[in-house]
Amino acid sequence: MANQHGDFIWYELLTTEADAAARFYGAVIGWQNRPAEGSNLDYRIFRINGTDVAGFMKLPAGAENAGMRPCWLGYIGVRDVDATAADVVRAGGVQHMPPTDIPGVGRFAMLADPQGVVFYVMRGTMEGTSTSFAPTRPGHCHWNELATSDQAAALAFYAGLFGWEKGDAMPMGAQGDYRFITHRGQTIGAVMNRMPDAPPPAWNFYFGVEDIDVAAKAVSDNGGAIHYGPAEVPGGVHIIVASDPQGAMFGVVGPRRAAP
């Protein structure tokens, strides 16, 4: 089935060291990489088993001076980029990059929700269906998790834009509920309140691996840092929350094949 309005369709790493990022994620997740055809931005593609799953590039000139740091961002597919960007601004969000065409690829915009969390929207022109988000495939994104300063407002904002719905919730004590979000009958992630001493509000994306302990060791052996885990989560899999050597936060999810 073709991607629909509100689907996560792509993930992108903005980094200070593209070559180092290629080596790191190759070791941790098993991604290969290639240059993007026709790009004049030195844009590169992460792929696995012959399928493109994410992109990466150096932070744009001036971005660091403006306060932007290495990070992962998600692209959400929409019917109309211009209309969605206008809706975001009307709902209290911010337009960081206006609707822009990428020849042969599609039209996109960089936006932020009212709590300051940055994301992209995009309408692609390329044929085929994105499988960047594919919870059963190693090397693809399995989970989209938003840590925010206002859970109720964030849920209302994204539901209004993309038709996402609130699913079940897991109580997390003083932190409140860990609220699942569903789209077209599929659980795609969750929204939670950000801890007071945690990084600023942001999306965190969990990429699938075949062995969580192998991935965790690769993070540490290749200059990254593990901030949480490996820890078991519902479904019998384990997660880690980590940062790469340039400081971009990301998650990994997979089974524990043997006792550590």
From TrEMBL:
InterPro entries: Anthracycline_SecMetBiosynth (IPR052164), Glyas_Bleomycin-R_OHBP_Dase (IPR029068), Glyas_Fos-R_dOase_dom (IPR004360), VOC_core (IPR037523)
Residue ranges occupied by any VOC domain in the UniProt entry: 7-124, 137-255
Pfam families documented for this protein: Glyoxalase
PROSITE patterns cross-referenced by the UniProt entry: VOC
Gene3D superfamilies xref list: 2,3-Dihydroxybiphenyl 1,2-Dioxygenase, domain 1
Protein name in the entry: Glyoxalase
UniProt lineage: Bacteria, Pseudomonadati, Pseudomonadota, Alphaproteobacteria, Hyphomicrobiales
